[in-house]
Amino acid sequence: MQGINRRHPQDSSITGLPSPDSGENSDGKWASRLLRECATAMSEKDSSKIHHLLWMLNELASPYGDCDQKLAFYFLQALFCKATDSGQRCYKTLISVAQKSHSFDSIRKLILKFQEVSPWTTFGHVASNGAILEALEGEKKLHIIDISNTLCTQWPTLLEALATRNDETPHLKLTVVVTTSIVESVMNEITPRMEKFARLMGVPFEFRVMSGLNFLGELTKDSLGVQEDEAIAVNCIGAFRRVDVEERRAFFQMIQSLRPKVVTVVEEEADLSSSRNDFIKCFDECLRFYTIYFDMLEQSFAPTSNERLMLERECSRSIVSVLACDDEIDHGDSERRERGNQWSDKLREAFIPVGYSDDVVDDIKALLKRYRTGWSLVLPAAGGDDLGINLTWKEEPVVWASVWKP
Amino acid sequence: MTEEVILVSSTPNLISECNLPPVKKKRNLPGNPDPEAEVIALSPKTLMATNRFLCEICGKGFQRDQNLQLHRRGHNLPWKLKQRTNKEVRKRVFVCPEKTCVHHHPSRALGDLTGIKKHFCRKHGEKKWKCEKCSKRYAVQSDWKAHSKTCGTREYKCDCGTIFSRRDSFVTHRAFCDALAEETARVTGASHMNNHAAGNINYHFIGAPLGPNTVQNFSSIFKPISSSDQNIDPTRRGLLHWMGQGSQGQESVARNFQEMHHMGIPMSSGVVNNFPDPLVINSCSNPQQSSYQWSWDLGNNLSSNQAEELTKNSLPLNNIEDLSIPSLFSSQHQIHQPSSANMSATALLQKAAQIGATTTDPSFLGNFGFKCSENPVQNEKNSCGVLYGSNPVTSGIGSDVESSLSDLSGLNQLQMYPPSKRQHVKNDKITRGETRDFLGVGMESICHPSSLNGWI
Fold this sequence. Notes:
Radius of gyration of chain B: 30 Å
Organism (chain B): Forsythia ovata
Protein name (chain B): Zinc finger protein MAGPIE
Strand content of chain A: 5-15%
Keywords (chain B): DNA-binding, Metal-binding, Repeat, Transcription, Transcription regulation, Zinc, Zinc-finger
Strand content of chain B: 5-15%
Strand order of the largest sheet of chain B: 2-5
Distance between the termini of chain B: 42 Å
Number of strands of chain A: 9
Largest sheet of chain A: 9 strands, mixed
Largest sheet of chain B: 2 strands, parallel
Helix content of chain A: 40-55%
Number of helices of chain B: 19
Structural class of chain A: alpha/beta
InterPro entries (chain B): C2CH-3rd_BIRD-IDD, C2CH-4th_BIRD-IDD, C2H2-2nd_BIRD-IDD, IDD1-16, Znf_C2H2_sf, Znf_C2H2_type
Pfam families (chain B): C2CH-3rd_BIRD-IDD, C2CH-4th_BIRD-IDD, C2H2-2nd_BIRD-IDD, zf-C2H2
Structural class of chain B: mainly alpha
Helix content of chain B: 25-40%
Shape of chain A: globular
Oligomer: heterodimer
Largest interface: A-B, 77 and 74 residues
Radius of gyration of chain A: 22 Å
Order of helices and strands of chain A: HHHHHHHHEHEHHEHEHEHHHEHEEE
Number of strands of chain B: 9
């Protein structure tokens, strides 16, 4: 491991902890070991151990190193905030720094590059677009409510499909609900682009961005401008996890009240909500998920990629929020993910699950073929309750996509 | 927060240039048959039966009538019998057996048997044929074959030069590519102006509201047109767009002309007064026609005959010279005289310089201007910044990143966000409240070309 400072003595005799050296040599996964030990020490409130581990991690961590060093860096930050009870402040600072360092150009480049090298997001787009097109086939007035932060990268292919697939091109109204302030700040750049593109495609188009929401729970049928004669599709990409845990059921009810023809859901496979009162469990799950994510990023991007760096930084806020912010409701960016089967259980109270058609599955398989190896599609188990599909990275399910009808 | 509701209702198929893989062009909707034709309704079984055409000599069956006729020749029939045995007195059209289908009704019957067979298969049949490369499925074997030949071989090229082998990534890229902004800025301008009318003078005459994405309205007029590109003469295309499309464009262009006048832009008084009713543009859907009619009066009282003359590649200069509008229109046509596709940027610069102080420049310099917006300069008077709007107003990338970083506790937070080197362009002042001529160029830049920082 390059760049690690090894000048300090290993105090293994005093603290009883393995020295970083031995950790590295044995299996190279020192970061998870040290981080877990630190988390344990925190939950046990063993302050000298905490200090020691924090110090060690600080020495070894780096956002520019390998996966271990990166994980150590970002998780260390969260642990530090937890230990010093400064999670909220840190979170706010991270947000403001991110806002300042991002522009439309940089975010656009980032998202497009990510989509080019990894199907992490495009998987959900293809699945959802396919389901939406099929569910709204034959309708003349479409209204898609897009609750996501995808910067509308999902929609060009849908617009193209609308233009080329049907004999009569329907009218499409797209209402985008943005949930992060960073994306919100650049949506004014997206609006003209989407409109122009729709014009180019020859699709009658109406576009609207809803922003300024403090949290998704504020959405109502009226504020969304839903009309009687429209065929509604509600598209939720990474949206549910941003709803406060206690309000999720109510949120689904609100969606149901819109009377959509189809609801498409895409979320990441991690359970950070059922364990939210158990720090260690939550920590473990968080570490597990981001270990996969960082590994995926490393394998997908070129080694010196700036975009990868930016994506990794984006994780820092989420990690701090989950581990160090103790469910403060006011920042509204809770990002407490749940697994597909958990979402399914809740969604089933308001909707009926629908499977993906063979055509859509084919499209997804074709999509995955275009990326590097390591990705695959897992279809729902026969006879199971959950009809959603999973994208897996190295056999680990990472993204869940599903379709629901009223 | 205000919500933006922008209503755009365009009719489909306004596309005149096709850099994108062509949108399926709508011929007359299939199945508008001759009312005198005889309507045949075959059952699915009969429809799918092959070899309906039987040779009366040997009984051999063929899928198509043509094949049968070819076969019959081989029987060495005497001349008389060589003719078709049944003269087709009435044309026959076929309906789709599927009741829910739009082509089930006789008024939408399809004209030939092969057509109805394929339709039935495609729409209502099982998709048995699958492409290996992309997993796309087809019900009709010939469709599948045709697709397999081209699957993966096709390359898509964006205006910005990037090439894609995947259509979906091409499409997504194109939607966000700034090259797209150039092409359709003029089209956008028309409808935007329509919506933003009501006293809002804060926009380009031709382009969309100021913003980096509404850059270079005219750049693609000067953009080298490669042979693989559209089949429309660039001037016409540019003008076509500029004139707006359909009545919406006409009205808004007309209105803007009025507003220009109100803004006190020096124009020959003849211009506005002679301005007849909405521009007559009858060639929106047929860009290849050379007979646009413009009644747009550029300072001359053009009769419709004279207007015809204008439909040639470029406007005769003498019609425009006396126009005192710092008219991009006029100068663009001057530049376009040579009309050759590949005018270099340097040549354009020189031309622009020749035209004089009234024509501000960077708007012609398509790609240059582009870079301009990416390298913001803090000079407020920089007309480059003016023309292209500011950098996204939202990107206040300042040097205060560092100071906020010092707030972060302890641990090498600085590593996470190395100071960003971008400066922001303080262009907000310029984009609001100042008088705009139709170029969207601030008056001061017209009057003080020297402030153009070396563009000219």
